């Protein structure tokens, strides 16, 4: 049972990471098209990106494989 839970945690952690990266890249591309930022640093300071990152960090803590 522990092994099954551990495997599930690893899969969920990986899925969350992939989903975050896909959403961040989609957001980055959309902002580039709309010319809302001129550098990567400005993108990383954008409130929409910060909200997405905060949500991901929260999920990462809850479903970390090291738990």
Q: How would you summarize this macromolecular structure in one to three sentences?
A:
The protein is an all-alpha fold and 67 residues long. It has one domain (10-62). It is built from 3 helices and no strands.
Explain what you see:
The protein has one domain. It is built from three helices and no strands. It is mainly alpha-helical. The longest helix has 32 residues, at 2-33. The radius of gyration is 15 Å and the shape is elongated.
Lay out the secondary structure.
Layout: H1 2-33, H2 40-44, H3 47-62
Helix pairs in contact: 1-3
Structural class by sheet pairing and helices: mainly alpha
Distance from N terminus to C terminus (CA atoms, Å) equals: 15 Å
User: Quaternary status of these chains?
Assistant: single chain
Number of domains: 1
Task: Please count the beta strands (DSSP E, at least 2 residues each).
Answer: 0
Number of helices: 3
Average pLDDT, all residues: 86
Main beta sheet strand tally, sense and closure: none
Apparent shape: elongated
Strand content is under 5%
Encode the helix/strand succession as letters. HHH
Unreliable stretches covering 5 or more consecutive residues? none
Rg over C-alpha atoms, rounded to the nearest angstrom: 15 Å
Which labels suit this protein?
3 helices; mainly alpha; 67 residues
């Amino acid at each position: 049972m522990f092994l099954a839970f551990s495997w599930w945690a690893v899969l969920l952690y990986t899925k969350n990471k992939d989903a975050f990266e896909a959403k961040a890249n989609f957001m980055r591309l959309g902002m580039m098209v709309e010319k809302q930022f001129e550098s990567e640093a400005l993108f990383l300071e954008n409130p929409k990106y910060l909200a997405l990152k905060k949500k991901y960090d929260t999920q990462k803590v809850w479903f970390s494989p090291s738990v």
